[in-house]
Amino acid sequence: MSLVGKSLVGSEFGSGSEGEFKAINPASGETLEPAFGLDGKDAINKATSLAAEAFQSFKLTSGAKRAQLLRTIASGLEANVDAIAQRMQEETALPEGRCRGEMGRTCGQLRMFADLVEEGSWLDARVEHADPDRAPLPKPGTRSMLRPLGPVVVFGASNFPLAFSVAGGDTASALAVGCPVIAKAHLAHPGTSELVGRVIQESVATCGMPEGVFSLLFLPGEQLAQELVQSPEVKAVGFTGSRRGGRAIMDVAAARPEPIPVFAEMSSINPVFITRGAIAARCDAIAQGFAGSLTLGSGQFCTNPGLVVIDNADRDAFVAAIDKYLTKMSCTPMLTPAIADHYRQGLEAFASQDGVTVLGSGAGSDSPNPITPTVFGVSAEKFLANGALSAEIFGPASLVVFCDGASDFLKVAGAIEGQLTATVQYESGELESFTDLVSQLESKAGRLVFNAFPTGVEVGHAMVHGGPYPSTSDGRSTSVGTQAAFRFCRPVCWQDCPDELLPKELQESNPLGITRLVDGKRVI
Questions:
Q1: Is 124 helix (H, G, I), strand (E, B) or coil?
Q2: What is the DSSP letter of 240?
Q3: Among 148, 196, 361, 447, fewest CB within 10 Å belongs to which?
Q4: 117 near 177, Cβ under 8 Å?
């Protein structure tokens, strides 16, 4: 499959009417061929119109049909893995193993959602039979289930060109429940995006779906991206990126004549609380694990451990252990020059704050955009007095907060914003002393991690990759795992509806054989 350098608007290519651009290899600084055409309002209008038209039939397809589409996409990606992985390496400087591993995760997600919608119980089908003899008023017959919202705009992420991008979890979960997708490609990896998008485009055709089920747009600037969100045909948004970008999209979506939900993953420093017992028993191992987690992927993971909380009495031991391992760590080039610039600006901002010191740093990368892993330190008193120290530095940087006793742990936990994760490193004999801390962290994070590190998000049915604002725009959701499907649905009730007009999932005979809640009891 050779690159064309165009948007995919349904079954056709875009016109490239708004100019062109080229991808840059972050390891060498060289531009990559081909040039990619940028599109504007005409492409937006056509893609959203096609999606709205497609939704009328796509929402009625069976779970089995949508599962077939998802599995076809996964097989198509695997058939083109060599070309996609090679282009991804060129556009991101990520190692081949990471590219192929992310492909495996992406295909696994697609098949996981296929299994979910094929089985059917996720719909939460409920049947309440009528009771005309109930006094003082008859009871109507009611049946309900989840139904798709409509066309979804998915913003591709910079740091996961596959798993959180064109065919990533947002797209997989939206297609699974019957929502057409309009993907807004991230301009840092356009070739990867096009190759993946064309696999989806071909899969839509192969499965006999309407062309508007999927489009991929290369759009210049924030204004057109916001106009895409403002399109009346769009009914929801999935976004992974910065707090500034996510907040802008949230505001645009809320200001529409018909406001729509935005499921944005935005900002998290993922605090790690380390008890005195853990330091005494495993200081060296914890420091080694922390340094590896901090620098994994050059720190460009949303679950990067950007805050560490320890007792001041353990300062010398922990700092010495960090220095031992961090000095050995180097990073590959960051994904884009802009991300590298923001990282360096973040380091400068932290270094200028009152009471902040540099505890250690790693080796700089040999690239056009060199970066250095850096760990800062500050007292709990200074941290609690300065909200700027809770800001995320996207990259391999972390702040160690030194506390005077367990009470300071609780104060720090209470002061942090909403997070994707919160971690506790502990020894078994200490659990009773930290019950209040764990309870506090439950209200602050979507995932609590014990005696591990937060980088690495398992894709499964119980995973929660979300959290209170500003880690996400809606802490009731997750962008990883099968619960992600619920973001793009709403419950609908049918009252006293004739059986033949009901969806098959709600018909009395249960022709699809799915698990349902019938008169308050779970029935298979």
A1: coil
A2: E
A3: 361
A4: yes
Q: Among residues 99, 179, 302, 331, which one is catalytic?
A: 302
List phi, psi (to 5°) of 29: 80, 0
The Cα-based distances of 161 to 94, 127, 145, 195 in angstroms read: 10, 42, 34, 11
Q: Evaluate whether 478 touches 452 at the Cβ level (below 8 Å).
A: no
Instruction: Tell me the CA distances in angstroms from 113 to 160, 166, 408, 480, one per residue in order.
Output: 19, 16, 43, 11
- pLDDT tens digits for 398-451? 999 999 998 999 999 999 999 999 999 999 888 788 899 999 999 999 999 999
* The residue type at 487: R
> β-strands 307-311, 271-274: how paired?
parallel
For 5, 36, 39, 109, 487, the CA distances from 15, given in Å and listed in that order, are 10, 10, 7, 32, 32
Q: Is 302 a catalytic residue?
A: yes
The pLDDT value recorded for residue 41 is 97
Tokens of 508: 């009395």
390 close to 417: Cβ distance less than 8 angstroms:
yes
DSSP code for 403? E
* pTM of full prediction above 0.70: yes
Q: Report whether 108 contacts 78 (CB < 8 A).
A: no
Considering the candidates 118, 233, 265, 505, report the single residue annotated as catalytic: 265
**By the 8 A CB rule, do 155 and 229 touch?**
no
Mean pLDDT, residues 476-482: 95
- Percentages (nearest 5) of helix, strand, coil residues in the chain: 45, 20, 40
The pLDDT score that the predictor gives to residue 329 is: 80
Rounded CA-CA distance 440/442 in Å is 5
**Do the Cβ atoms of 278 and 426 come closer than 8 Å?**
yes
Q: Tokens for 3, please give them.
A: 């690159």
Instruction: Give the containing element (helix H, strand E) for 171.
Output: helix 169-177
Does the annotation mark 179 as catalytic? no
What are the tokens at 335?
A: 């994904």
Q: Which neighbouring-strand residues pair with 239?
A: 264
Write out the two tokens for 466. Answer: 């979300």
Q: Write out the DSSP string of 428-495.
A: GGGGGGGHHHHHHHHTTEEEEEESS-S-----SSS-----STTSBS-TT--SSSGGGGGGGEEEEEEE
- Give the list of residues 6+ apart from residue 478 with CB closer than 8 angstroms, or none: 446, 463, 464, 465, 466, 484
| Cα–chain center distance at 215 | 20
| Residues 217/9, Cβ–Cβ less than 8 Å | yes
Task: Give bridge partners of residue 262 from the DSSP assignment.
Answer: 237
Amino acid at position 320, single letter: A
Query: For residues 251-280, b (16+ Cβ closer than 10 Å) or e, as one string?
Result: ebbeeeeeebbbbbbbbbbbbbbbbbbbbe
Reference 161, options 289, 26, 52, 255; nearest CA is 26
